[in-house]
Amino acid sequence: MIPSGSRRVSRGTREFFCYPARMDFLWTPWRYAYIVSTDKAAGCVFCQALARTDDRNTGVVYRGRHCFIILNAFPYTSGHVMIVSNQHLDQLHKLPPETAQEMMALTQRMEAILHEVYQPDGVNLGMNIGKAAGAGVAGHIHMHVLPRWVADSNFMTVVGETRMLPESLEATYDRLKQKLS
Q: How far is Cα 131 from Cα 139, in angstroms, rounded to an integer?
């Protein structure tokens, strides 16, 4: 059955469905509370986490020479981490080469670990540089790394405005900390 409003396209022996050229919007209102709260927070949450030594409470799962890895407190999926520069810098081009190299090396390492621990269908990597680009913490550059599964946005997320994660942040912390040790 062809989905309503689409058309069938043949290429060789394969058939594809082309969806109508209209834009659908999926709203994520649960993110609004987080985005608004970062404006009111005193200081930088990443600098504060780096300065503290209670890694379990801050979600820091790894400390490198130039960067650290921290759990996202408002994850899109279980395993959602951020690789953060130890320096409070707001743009990628401002990172010293050794920091940028370590950030990419840790990104590669986390990609492999997430595949091993969660067996996702894919992995999202990304940076939102600046508030207009969607950065929740706009002044401190960081790389998001998160596992994704086909159809991991469901009714509860899209309509019910509720994100359902199969494990607690504490369980995620334990699983990733063990792999990074």
A: 9
The reply to whether 144 belongs to the active site is no
Spell out the residues 6+ positions from residue 19 whose beta carbon is closer than 8 angstroms to its own.
3, 5, 6
**45 touches 143 (CB < 8 A):** no
Q: Quick one: pLDDT at residue 156?
A: 47
Structural domain span for residue 68:
42-180
Cα 52 to its chain centre, rounded Å, is 22
CATH number at residue 158: 3.30.428.10
Over residues 123-147, the mean pLDDT reads 92
Asked whether residue 145 is domain-assigned, the answer is: yes
Which strand (E) or helix (H) includes residue 47?
A: helix 45-51
When divided into structural domains, the chain yields a total of: 1
Segment 47-78, tens digit of pLDDT: 999 999 999 999 999 999 999 999 999 888 89
Instruction: Tell me if 172 is assigned to some domain.
Output: yes
Helix (H, G, I), strand (E, B) or coil at 75: coil
Active-site residue, selected from the candidate residues 66, 80, 140, 142? 142
